[in-house]
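Researcher: Please predict.
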Amino acid sequence: MAKSILEFIVDYYRHLRMISRNVALFLLGSFFVNFLFAVYVLIFNLYLRELGFTESMIGRTLSSVAIGAMLASIPCAILIARYAIKRMLLITTVLLTVAFFFMVTVTAPWLVMAAGFFMGSLISFSRVASAPLFMRNTTPKERTYVFSLNFANWMFAGIIGSYLGGYAHEWYSLHYQSGIASYRFVLLGGMVMALLALIPFALIRAKPPAESERKFVLSRKLLREKGGLLFRLSFPFFLVGAGAGLIIPFLNLYFRDVFEMSTEQIGVYYAAVQATMIIGTMVAPVFVRRYGMVRTLVITELASIPFMLVMAFSGDIPLVIAAFLCRGALMNMGQPIGTNFAMEMVTKEMHALANSFTMIAWTSSWAVSTQLGGWVIEHYGYTPSFLITIGFYMSSAFLYYYFFSKSETREGRTYSINATGRTDFG
C-alpha cells in the first residue's frame, strides 16, 4: 500500500514538472480570481437575503449572472481564436472587479441584476480561455494532469475563500457592524484579492494563436459539419447545469434554514467540501489511465447520487455533512475530464468554440433552473429540488456514456482518445 502511494506521488510529481511557465502563471492568476468567486458563492445570496430579497428574487439575480456568461461565450471564443489571451485576461480582470463593485454596492434589484449580468459575461472569458491556453502550452503527456490541476486550483481558492470569508464576516460583525455592512466588507475584500491576478497575468509570455485559429470563422457550413459533435459534447453539460441550478446555489441557505448554522459554520463546511473536491480532482488522472475519460466521468457522476438522497431526506447533521463532502468530491471529479475530453475530440481551431458550447449549455440551463429552484424551494422546500436534480444527473451520465463510450478503444489497460475531431457518431 505504502509503495503504491509513493509510486503515485512520484508519477504525479514527474508530470507536474512538465508544466510550462505560462500555465503556472495562469493558474496563479486564476487562484486570485477564483478566490473572489468563492467569496461570492458563500456570501452573496446571504447578503441578498439580508437586503430583503426573497428566494425567487435571489434566483433571478443568480440567473442574470449565468445569462451574462452564456451570451458572452461565443464572442469570447471568437476573440480568443484571433488575439493573444494575455491582453484580454488583463482587460477583463479589471472590468470584472468594476462590475462586482457595483453589484455589491447598489441595492435596487434591477441594478444588482444588471451588474451581475456584466460580471457573468466577464467571468466567462477566463472560463472559455483556460482550455485553449492549456492546449497551446502543454503536451499530451501532462495535459490531463493540467486540466485536473486547474480544477483543483479553483477548489483550493474555494477553500481559502470560503474559510476566510466566513471568518471575516464573523470578525467584522463582532468588532464593527453586523448585517449588510459585514457581508459587504467580505465581498469587497474578495474583489481586492481578484485584482492581484493582474500581476501573474501580466507576466505571461503569450503565444499568438496559430494561423489556422486566426482564420477560424463560425459559419453555417461548420455548424452543419460539426454541429452533431458539438451537441453531443455539450448536451450532457446542459443536463448537469439544469440539475445543479435547482439546488447548488441554495445549499448555504439550506444549511442555515434546515440546520440553523451560522455563516462561520457554513464557511468551514464549504472550505471542507473544496478540500474533498481537490482530492477527487487530483486522483482523477489515475482513474482516467485505468478506465478512460468517459467511464470515469460517468461512474463518478452516478456515484454522487446516493449522497444527494441522504441530503434530501436525512435530518442528521453529521450524516448530511459527510454526504455533502462526498457528493462534492464525486460530482466535480469529472468536470476537468469532460473539458479535456471535449478538447481532444475537436481540432485546435475549434478548441475555444467547443469550450464555449459546453459553457453555454451549462450556463443556459443554470440560468433557467436557478429561477425555478428559488421558486420550488420557496413554495415546497428543499427535498423536491434535490430529487429533480438527481433525475437530471442520471440522465446526463447515461447520455454521455451512450454518445461516447465507443470513442475510446481499449489497448491492454490503456485508453486512447480519438483526437481527429470525429467520433463514431458524427
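Model: The CA atoms of residues 247 and 385 lie 6 Å apart.
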